Amino acid sequence: MVKRTRVKDLLATTEFNREVTVMGWVRTFRNSQFIAINDGSSINNIQAVVDFNNTDEALLKRITTGASVSVTGNLVESVGKGQRVEIKVTRLEILGDSDAEKFPLQPKKHSLEFLREIAHLRFRTNTFNAVFKVRHALAFAVHQFFNDKGFVYMHTPIITASDAEGAGEMFRVSTFDPDNIPRNEDGTINYKEDFFGKATNLTVSGQLEGELAAMAFGDVYTFGPTFRAENSNTTRHLAEFWMIEPEMAFYDLDGNMDLAEELLKYVISYALEHCADELEFLKNRLLEEEKSKPQTDRSDLDLLAKLNFCLENNFERLTYTEAIQILKNSKPNQKKQFKYLIDNWGADLQSEHERYLVEKHFKKPVILTNYPADIKAFYMRQNDPDENGRRTVRAMDILFPGIGEIVGGSQREERLEKLEQRMNEMDIPTHEMSWYLDTRRFGSAPHAGFGLGFERLVLFVTGMTNIRDVIPFPRTPKNAEF
Ligand code: 4AD
Ligand code: MG
């Protein structure tokens, strides 16, 4: 194939009057003359000018929105408004036709809901070009951050036999014929006959295996897909999402919080630096979207200002107990505007409470610590009961404006007896998790870690409002299209 030059490079070049070849997809074709070509390398198109008097009529007809083309011609400075360079076409080839009547993407604004239904084509819009470029940059920045700090990237298993969060929200993995499942004499399922010889599921978190590795390498992280069969049809939940989970030996909760805050600031500033065009576009997209909302529902800061604000301010750190006090006395609680009213210590925080703390009370990211043991997972380090006998654990959740919980983590219970006792209380089979408990039997060490939901991070940085729009092919209840 002829060597092509990327549109992004041509838009930035100062070397004119040379022959170039561009391959891409037609966005628009005006006046039988001006083709706007996008090849994905930039959110901006390049203009190719066709000499329509000397071009075959039949060929001109095939330059339709969505068609794939190869154009060769002289690169010149543009006299027209809106672009700096253009190509005077000398050779044009249609690589793939696109029937303008049938192509679902027209050169006009489409709703995000509509684009979700054609997720296989939505990559070809400016919005999704920008979103997935930012997603890429953030993923790259995550690896950069940990690599620079000497963390080891561990690939934890996707198929497991354990429920890391103990919440029972797992997708089963089996090769049984659903119409003919082997059973024991007492009617229970005979998993010995299944592929792995035991009941298995898709992982909800790589943390437990991460802990095993941290007890040898010191600092590790995983970054992989995780799966939750929770029936939450919200703008913040996916059944398949990606999670970043560092795990560090010789860390306490403070060190854990410091690392999480540093990571978030690093990846946000990386995106600001490397995705300036995309974020500028997404800022304007959001401003446009918010025009249709009532004033009270609009953001105080535009997207770029919000991201910069996040970099420049320390996250507010407070305990769950302090947060409950604030929520109890808050206006929406007193006026019974919360759907779930806060009256007791021990209540689980709903997203309305988290968002009140972040968006209304502190107006900045918040880290809540030391949650009641009863609303958190078994592996978290237990604090001594307070003077009222309340049991808390060394948990930390980071709450972000517009998102709610973006990070969940904790210092881990490294004391074997305490851990076993808690697992027994919560009906978690200790004999099946003997491998996990071995880390506490042989050279146990204080350690901590957290999980950052990657799509929630991408949501925050792109200013998109539905998590289905920041992962290429979202999996949600009753939806596994594509
Ligand atoms: O709070 P979670 O459940 O914590 C864990 O899984 C721990 N094992 C992490 C650790 O300590 N290593 O999940 C962590 C984060 C949440 O804060 C949220 O950002 C994201 O993962 N998350 C989801 N994102 C999208 N869809 C869902 N259904 C999510 N559930 C959790
Ligand atoms: Mg959580």
Would you report the number of β strands?
A: 16
Whole-number average pLDDT? 96
Going across the major beta sheet, what is the strand order? 6-10-11-16-15-14-13-12
Compute the number of helices.
15
Q: Which ligands does the model contain, each kind named once?
A: 4-amino-1,4-dioxobutan-2-aminium adenosine-5'-monophosphate, magnesium ion
The largest sheet, given as strand count, sense and whether it forms a barrel, is:
8 strands, mixed
At the fourth CATH level, what is the homologous superfamily of the largest domain? Bira Bifunctional Protein, Domain 2
Number of domains: 2
Instruction: Find the CATH topology of the largest domain.
Output: BirA Bifunctional Protein, domain 2
Structural class: alpha+beta
Considering DSSP H and I runs of 4 or more, what fraction of the residues is helical? 25-40%
- Report the CATH C-level class of the largest domain: Alpha Beta
In whole angstroms, the N-to-C terminal distance is 30 Å
Low-confidence stretches: none
Shape: globular
Can you name the CATH architecture of the largest domain?
A: 2-Layer Sandwich
Q: Measured on Cα atoms, how large is the radius of gyration?
A: 27 Å
Approximate strand percentage: 15-25%
